[in-house]
Amino acid sequence: MVTKVSKADKKIAYDQKLCQLLDEYSQVLIAVADNVGSNQLQNIRKGLRGDSIVLMGKNTMMKRTIRVHAEKTGNQAILNLIPLLVGNVGLIFTKGDLKEISEEVAKYKVGAPARVGLVAPVDVVVPPGNTGLDPSQTSFFQVLNIPTKINKGTVEIITPVELIRKGDKVGSSEAALLAKLGIRPFSYGLVVLSVYDNGSVFSPEVLDLTEDDLIEKFALGVSMVTSLSLAISYPTLAAAPHMFINGYKNVLAIAVETDYSFPQADKVKEYLEDPSKFAVAAAPVAAADSGAAPAAAKEEEKKEEPAEESDDDMGFSLFD
């Protein structure tokens, strides 16, 4: 005879399992599980098996376990998980790459029909074309102000129609029409809301950042620091080269307008007194630049020319 496990024993076992996972894993994905069925959740568990563990449960029980475990172990970082446990959410504990696990979770989405009273997660647009419905079904289209015509004994939608907007509730007429057309406009699955990594919590969009994105953001930050430093005349490592150049320009301008001079300013004064000297000095540089392009072009032409085959290369002589 199989003994029935009491609710108290189930809670104890769940508490122990959650504590064990908190000790073993330092990375957790917090995912919402609205409209996700048990079979779909089982498939997600199978797909993540080996790298990750999906744990669902009541938010109050998970919060209590996390608080008690933080007090026992002194690991205060896990308390950052508590504010994230809102709504129908689950925890995905993983030791793998967070981005890969997040992408794997997103694959397990199942199409679902539009049910009455459901809040639409996306816009629903009915495409134009033949519906296959007989003319007696035109009442559905008239109620929803969808332009139609009768073509070869069936109802045909003339133009695409936005039937439901994102965030609106699905009405009975919309649900009936979509069911008749065989359209399943919504898809549901686990959606990652937040990412926990060694005490840090951030949005899943951070996982999509590439090295180029990070370099671009870093360069933008350096540019802002440089601009601010130059505006308030506060020296920083980023602004120092610009400050030196600006200082050199100021000293050079003073030297040009006064009798004060230094070696670099002497050459500038010489060019200002006789601009032809500047033209002579710039000519070799311009010639070198203009000559480099044709030389490079000729080199490319030589590479592209096929090698001529000699008689010896062809294996015989024309005079044999």
Helix/strand layout:
Layout: H1 7-24, E1 27-32, H2 38-48, E2 52-55, H3 59-73, E3 89-94, H4 98-107, E4 110-112, E5 124-126, E6 129-130, H5 138-143, E7 148-151, E8 154-157, E9 161-164, H6 172-181, E10 186-188, E11 191-197, E12 200-202, H7 211-232, H8 240-257, H9 263-273, H10 275-304, H11 311-314
Keywords: Ribonucleoprotein, Ribosomal protein
GO cellular component, one term: cytosolic large ribosomal subunit
GO molecular function: large ribosomal subunit rRNA binding; structural constituent of ribosome
Question: Any key phrases for this structure?
Answer:
five-stranded antiparallel beta sheet, single chain, three-stranded antiparallel beta sheet, disordered C terminus, 3 domains, 11 helices, uL10_eukaryotes, 320 residues, alpha+beta, Molybdopterin biosynthesis moea protein, domain 2, structural constituent of ribosome, flat, Alpha-Beta Plaits
